[in-house]
Amino acid sequence: MSRGDLQQLVAQGEGLRLEFKHRLPEPERVVRELTALANTSGGYLLIGIADDGTIKGVKDPEEEVYALNSALKQYCFPEVAVELEHVRVSRTRTVVIVKTTASPMRPHYVLDPCSQDRCVFVRFEDMCIEASREARKLMYSLPDSENVLIKLGAKERLLLKQLEQKGRVTVYGFAKYAKIHPGRASRIIVRMTRAKILVHHIDLEDDYFTAGAALLQ
Predict the structure, then answer these.
(1) CA-to-CA distance for 215 and 152, rounded, in angstroms?
(2) What is the residue-averaged pLDDT of the chain?
(3) Residue 145: what pLDDT?
(4) By the 8 A CB rule, do 206 and 171 touch?
């Protein structure tokens, strides 16, 4: 990547696929950012860019890369695959470009060093947030997932009725509407999403689901 390419990328501003860091943050935090990108749509982490988009660079890019690789090995499971590139922005400063793709090994977990819990993070707009139960389930690849068949029973038809009325559904909204446990509502919604009847949308408050390709044909 040239310096001009870097400037064009930075000009887009932070968003779903782009995160700026002035310096590499504490290990667990940078792993959250990278796993969130890999668990969602992939993208870039740029080290040496201020929050306002000022291209500052770092003095020792190799030190940043070493800390990054150490953090991924220690706190990430399975480890996220990244591509690294350096762009010199002044005589003494370099921006480290960390690129990752939407990972086929999703979900990637982050180990909490205190509790030893494993958490999954996703990207929402320019933020890293914890993934919902449904988002985690939908990350797993299933055999023949392109041809999922589902029987539309009474509860599934209630969901379609609510979807027609509101244009979107949430797990807890559907559970209340259908008078079922949220766990059962979640399983129904995940199955219908895999069958392409619904489309999953990550949201800061509650993930929601809209009509999928199978309904729009």
Answers:
(1) 13
(2) 93
(3) 46
(4) yes
Is residue 78 domain-shared with residue 175, that is, in the same domain?
no
Over residues 78-106, the pLDDT tens digits come to 999 999 999 999 999 999 999 999 999 99
Residue 87, token pair as written in the block: 């762009």
- 14 shares its domain with 76: yes
Q: Say what the pLDDT of residue 117 is.
A: 86
Largest Cα–Cα distance of the chain, in whole Å? 68
Q: Is residue 33 part of a domain?
A: yes
Please give the Cα distance from 118 to 175 (Å, whole number). 27
* Domains contained in the chain, number: 2
In a domain, 140, yes or no: no
**Last residue of some domain: 131, 161, 191?**
131
Cα–Cα dist 118/120, whole Å: 7
The per-residue pLDDT for range 113-125, each reduced to its tens digit, is 777 789 999 999 9
- Domain coverage including residue 198: 145-216
Q: Tell the residue number behind the tokens 């809209």, with chain if given.
A: 210
**pTM of the entire structure?**
0.90
The last residue of one of the domains, among 98, 131, 164, is 131
Regarding whether 50 and 104 lie in a shared domain, the answer is: yes
Asked whether the CA dihedral 145, 146, 148, 152 is positive or negative, the reply is positive
Q: How far is CA 174 from CA 46, 81, 127, 163, 199, in A?
A: 40, 37, 27, 9, 15
Residue 159's pLDDT is 97
Tokens of 158: 């209630």
Question: What is residue 78's three-state secondary structure?
Answer: coil
